[in-house]
Amino acid sequence: MSSDESVLAAEGISVRRAGQVILDDVTLSISAGSRTLIRGPSGAGKTTLFSVLGLLETPDTGRLLVDGTDASTLPERRRAQLRRDAIGFVFQDFQLVPDLTARENALLPQTHGGSHEADWVDDVLGRLDIADRADRYPATLSGGEKQRVAIARALANRPAVVLADEPTGQLDPETTDQVMDLLVALHESADTALVTISHDPALASMFERTVRLQAGGLVSET
Length: 222
Ligand SMILES: Nc1ncnc2c1ncn2[C@@H]1O[C@H](COP(=O)(O)OP(=O)(O)OP(=O)(O)O)[C@@H](O)[C@H]1O
Fold this sequence. Notes:
CATH architecture: 3-Layer(aba) Sandwich
Bound molecules: adenosine-5'-triphosphate
Helix content: 25-40%
Low-confidence stretches: none
């Protein structure tokens, strides 16, 4: 379900690194419950934009509003709280903790001081069809299973928005379809906005909106 309410708004974001402009005056608004694909060639600045939108990196100029809060001026501790409560992350390389089970990985955002709804995480693991693997360690899971655990972790605190950076980059085409179908179904039922960064054109049909980044700037939208 989409609404006009913005859960993530980047206003005039610019990032420079080593004298080079990486992001150039990027303005982007993500509505509650919406589904956006950010595409662009290698080196366009996609991962940098992902880091800025996820409060992992501070832009040199511009404002970032997360779930109505201006994150630009917050001290780091409040930024970390906002990141934990309002944003879920899915990474290309899964980034699961190797010595925690699948269920413990999925519960991490809650054990780090978020909400305490283990039932919700168990429900999500069930809907991802990995409840029977919940007590296994990441090393014993396939790539698709690891990414499903990462999706459960991303949704653990029922965030306003899930950010996914090349979530299918390490998966074969069949597993890509399965994982994307699950990600889309779960973001809809959790009423979370979904922002996915990918260079894979095959994903475009699953998104209601595509934004294109080139040489650090947004060049077109469909
Ligand atoms: N810390 C940094 N210092 C200097 N240059 C950087 C830094 N981080 C990124 N860059 C440069 O910024 C540009 C954008 O990088 P970014 O990783 O955001 O692109 P991308 O679109 O995600 O690329 P890819 O699809 O290849 O992952 C690249 O030219 C990169 O070399």
